What does this fold into?
Amino acid sequence: MDDGFKVGAKVFLDGEYGVVINLKKHEVSTIIRWDTPMENDIEDWCSMWGTFIQMGGIVIDPNHQFQYIQDDGSLKDNI
It folds into this structure.
């Protein structure tokens, strides 16, 4: 697994931004919370980091500001 794909990493794939969140019991979470107004818009990319990259997914600037979610994946209050 690439070192960039870790809890807190901000990612981009297919026109959508997201963040890797800590929903697993082990250190290596593979859950992405997408930047949408939906409460539970998450996907598990377990064992699929290579596929994520092949599909054009990238780790983005850690200073990226999300529209709907906080950096920890929780929804912002002002939506």
Observations:
- The helical segments are 49-54.
- Strands lie at 10-13, 16-21, 31-34, 42-44, 58-59.
- The chain has one helix and five strands.
- The two ends are 34 Å apart (CA to CA).
